[in-house]
Write a structure and sequence with these properties.
Length: 241
Amino acid sequence: MVALLDGGGYADQVAVRATQLLPAPRSVDLIDAAALPEAVCTAWDNLVTVGGLASGEWVLLHGGSGGVGTVAIQIAKALGARVATTAGGPERAAQCADLGADRTIDYREQDFVDALREASDGAGADVVLDVVGAAYLGDNVRALARGGRLVVIGLQRGRRGELDLAALMAKRATVTGTTLRSRPAAEKAAVVAAVREHVWPMIDDGRVRPVVHTRVPLAEAQRAHDLLESGEVFGKVLLVP
């Protein structure tokens, strides 16, 4: 089994509600399967339940090389969406393309709004999944299509930003902020149930797989954090007891 934890995962043993358990996919190594629950639950819930992503729509994923981003690319493609994603550097952009992204944007060299508009024939993104926060707020609204949905799930570059309400109203767009960890148990159970129904079959047939950068012994947890802070990680870093 694998589990969506409330926290406390740096341990040899943990207690978890039965409603937050998922069967380990038979097609995935058990240790690598540890990379799935939180990333998949976050991606599915925010892309589909919150963002309402549908087949044929454009989604812009910030942080496509991250633990959530690498899974979100695959889920969005499995749903029939068209995926644009930002990444830092040409190598990471190429890795995102290998996962199925239709348009990769090196945010160090390109303006993501212009690149997205070019890819979408000027329409923009129906859904933007953002882990950056305040620094991208204005440009994310610019990137939205009419009726677009901006879903903010991270604050890597700030928590306070200025929002042009007139631009939001003109596009009939919405901005939603959400977290997974702080939700009530009943809501987490519903997310896990939806993931088991909709995403686990994608894993079983190979459309979605965990992306693991490396495994690090639990006793060397600080090294894992140093790796993450280096900006060189693609996918997940797993701590292994």
